[in-house]
Amino acid sequence: MSPTKPKFLFVLSSHTSYILNGEPHPSGWFLPEFAHPFNTLEEKVDIVIASPQGGEASLDSNSITYAKGDEESMEFYRTRSDLWKKTVKLEDVRGRTKEFAGVFYVGGHGPMFDLAHHEASHGIIRDLWEAGKVVSAVCHGPAALVNAKLSDGSYLVAGSKVNGFTNREEVAFGTASAMPFMLEDVLNEHAREEDGGEFVSGDMWAEKVVVGKDGR
Question: Contact, 63 vs 30, CB < 8 A?
Fold first, then answer.
């Protein structure tokens, strides 16, 4: 009998829209930022999908257009909608963190609105981190981490090298005025509360992987 695969938690935003120039725009999670990590990890871990509200998590329809030339993401969109239409509510995962090897927060503008201040999500992050597990995110996903605190009251990101969607990218994307805060600014502020912490980035739109505290 093959060994049981470890469980890994993926978190999607439930936020549906934001106001830009007086008009509502679709929001939520970003298709390629779910599709590629999921496909990479699916054979290695048992993935559980959760969201703040549970049920169907809000796919940013603009990300479908963005991904038109990305066949892997489009195939995922066509064939795997069950994954985001039946998500587990984050509050129901709160007491189950011992089951998981880590958590990954999918990007998209949604996390800026619902996950940045989500109590159950912050509790999951704290429990996993303090148990030596993996806490990870991509693009705007670090909005879920930016305000998370550990049991001693310090910010999770304090003293860490951190990365996420940059100010320059937000301005270039035309969405800076619609955001409740600038992700780079607050990540940098909270990271710098302990020595060695700072926001680091590469060129605009370039891939940039940052490993934080303790090789995690």
Answer: yes
Q: Give mean pLDDT in consecutive 10-residue pieces for the chain, a chain of 216 residues.
A: 82 98 97 98 98 99 97 98 98 96 98 98 98 97 98 97 96 98 98 95 82 74
DSSP string computed for 33-67: HHHHHHHHHTTTSEEEEEESS-BS--B-HHHHHHT
Rounded distance between C-alpha atoms, residue 216 and residue 84, angstroms: 27
Burial of 46 per CB tally in 10 Å (0-12, 13-18, 19+):
middle
| Alpha-carbon torsion, ordered 121, 125, 131, 135, to 10 deg | 130
pTM of the predicted model as reported, rounded to 2 decimal places: 0.95
User: Which residue, 110, 111, 166, 120, is CA-closest to 142?
Assistant: 111
Rounded-to-integer distance, Cα 95 and Cα 83, Å: 22
- Supply the pLDDT for residue 1: 36
Edge-to-edge strands, sheet with 134-137: 88-89, 46-51, 7-11, 100-105, 134-137
Q: Which domains does the chain have, with CATH numbers?
A: 7-215 (3.40.50.880)
* β-strand partners of 6: none
Collect all residues with Cβ–Cβ distance below 8 Å to 184 and sequence separation of at least 6. 164, 165, 166, 167, 170, 199, 201
Residue 116 phi/psi, 5-degree rounding, is: -65, -25
